[in-house]
Amino acid sequence: MSTRAKKIWFRLLWTMGVVLGTAFALTLPVEKLDLPAPEPAAEETAEPETISFGDVNKDGVLDTLDVNALQNIYLKGETSLTEEELYTIADINGDGIIDTNDTAILMSYLANADSSTQSLKAYAESYSG
Ligand SMILES: [Ca+2]
Ligand SMILES: [Ca+2]
Description:
Layout: H1 3-32, H2 64-76, H3 83-90, H4 100-112, H5 120-126
The chain binds calcium ion (2 copies).
One calcium ion (CA) binds at residues 55, 57, 59, 61-63, 65-66.
């Protein structure tokens, strides 16, 4: 290897060393920085959904519109609910099928139950036709 080649080679290594050394030095202070803890996420201020079970049209109220919406599911296949919601919201008797039995319970609940003291879910569980 000629002297000239050695010089070039040395210079190349030296440059790499400087670059790597600088890069390494730059990473150190960042790691040592005492970063403040991230702000805790803001508390959810949205109102919790009080009515969801049986609120098939999702307007926050249990009424005959939900009976209609329920009927639309099995009569027309129309609903704004996702498949998951169908079975958590619209399957009133929890048998895995959306049908007239669910409408019957919902209608009976609207006609007979005191919604301030009894939830639709509790009513459906005690409903025997
Ligand atoms: Ca509703
Ligand atoms: Ca059902």
